[in-house]
C-alpha cells in the first residue's frame, strides 16, 4: 500500500502545469531561397557585370551559407572564385553586408579587421571584411546572399546589390500577380458586406496591373516609362 501512495505523491511532479506556456518547438512561415531563385540572382548579376564591362565571379548561398549557384564569367580571374563564395557566406550568416567591421582609417582598425577574419578562419568559419557580399531579404527575412568578386570594390558591390534587388522585385511581382488572380477569380468570395461598385473594381485592377508592369520593367532593366506609355 505504501508503494502505491508513493506513486500518487510523486505523480503531479511529472504533470505540466495547466497555466504554463508550451515552448515553441518549430518556427513556421519561413521563406526559403530555391535553386530557381538562385539562378535568377546569378543571371541578374551577370547582366549587370556585362553592362559594367567587367568579368565577375558570382556566388549565391542560402540563409545558412550553403552554396546554391556559382558562375565564373568568361575572363574572370580564378583567384576571386573563393573570395566571391566567402563574401556570400559571410553576408548570409552575419545577416549584413560584408565590409570592414572597424571602418576607421588607422592601423589599429586595419589590424582588428584582419584579426576578426583570421579568428573566424581558425575556427573553420567563413568571414571576410571585403566588400561585395549582399544579403537577399524577402518579407523581412534573410533568405540567402550573393557574393561577387573579380572587379573593383565599387563594381563588386554594384553587381551584388543589383542581383539581390532583382530577386526581391521578382518575388514582389509574383506576389502581386497572385493577389490580382485571386481578386479576379469569380469563385473567390469577397468578405465585405458592402462590395465596391464596378468603377472602383476597374480602378483597383488597373492599379495592380500597372504596379506589376513597373516591377517587370525594373527587373528587366527597362525604363519605367514603358509601364505608362
Topology:
Elements: H1 2-10, H2 35-51, E1 57-62, E2 67-72, H3 81-94, H4 107-122, E3 133-138, E4 141-149, H5 153-184, H6 198-220
Antiparallel strand pairs: 1-2, 1-4, 3-4
Helix pairs in contact: 2-5, 5-6
Characterization of the model:
The structure is a single chain. The chain is of the alpha+beta class and 229 residues long. Helix content is 48%, strand content 12%. It contains six helices and four strands; from the N terminus they run ααββααββαα. It has helices spanning 2-10, 35-51, 81-94, 107-122, 153-184, 198-220, and strands at residues 57-62, 67-72, 133-138, 141-149. The protein has a four-stranded antiparallel β-sheet. Residues 189-208 and 224-229 have low confidence and may be disordered.
What is the molecular shape? globular
How many extended strands?
4
Question: What are the segments in which pLDDT stays under 50 over at least 5 consecutive residues?
Answer: 189-208, 224-229
Element-level helix/strand string: HHEEHHEEHH
- Figure out the total of helices: 6
Reported for the largest beta sheet, the result is:
4 strands, antiparallel
Average pLDDT, rounded to a whole number, is 79
Strand order of the largest sheet: 2-1-4-3
Distance between the termini: 91 Å
Beta-strand content bin: 5-15%
Structural class computed from helices and strand pairing: alpha+beta
Helix content: 40-55%
Q: Radius of gyration, Cα only, in angstroms? A: 26 Å
Features:
single chain; alpha+beta; globular; disordered C terminus
